Amino acid sequence: MKIFSIGAFLLGLLIILVSFPPEIYGKTCHPSGGIRGRKPPSGQCNTENDSVCCIQGKFYTTYTCSPPVSSSTNATLTLNSFQKGGDGGGPSECDKKYHSDDTPVVALSTGWYKGGDRCHNFIRINGNGRSVKAMVVDECDSSMGCDEEHDYQPPCPNNIVDASKAVWKALGVSLENWGDLDITWSDE
Ligand SMILES: *[C@@H]1O[C@H](CO)[C@@H](O)[C@H](O)[C@H]1NC(C)=O
Ligand SMILES: *[C@@H]1O[C@H](CO)[C@@H](O)[C@H](O)[C@H]1NC(C)=O
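# 2-acetamido-2-deoxy-beta-D-glucopyranose complex -> structure
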């Protein structure tokens, strides 16, 4: 019966490992799923400032995780408006308020937003040879999109720091290059 016990033990262990992968397997961030784009109803989806609208039938990968955070985390800086009527959609997730685009504020991809754990924390952004401190006020949703709540915009990639124009100004990026920049960031 001993062989049976060992067999049962190993099978049990295997089932546990498959069902609950240990942290080492969790270090790489895999997609959580995907959604099919829906055509925005007319008047929806603000395309100002190069915001992208969902394309009917296009597949968009979704994530609930982001790459691990270090003292120099690689990310892509994008431009967002946090003001009322801006391309950011509704008010900020952290405090349900709008924020002036003249203040350095950011939204982070879902995994980095951590369900609000970084709300009102400051992060340091390094890019274009300069550095700026910005406050986290919102989530750039990597897990959902292409619906009214997200202004019919696709889900956010999982490595985005979506920043107000004040951040772009502070980094000294010339206006024609606003929109997409390789940066690193860290918790302050
Ligand atoms: C971060 O980006 C730099 C420059 O593109 C690259 O050399 C480095 O390997 C990246 N680091 C990680 C952890 O992805
Ligand atoms: C577009 O960007 C400009 C400069 O940041 C800003 O003043 C304007 O409100 C933005 N428009 C929208 C719709 O977000």
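# post-check
Residues 36 and 107 are 24 Å apart (CA to CA).
The helical segments are 2-19, 23-26, 110-113, 165-170.
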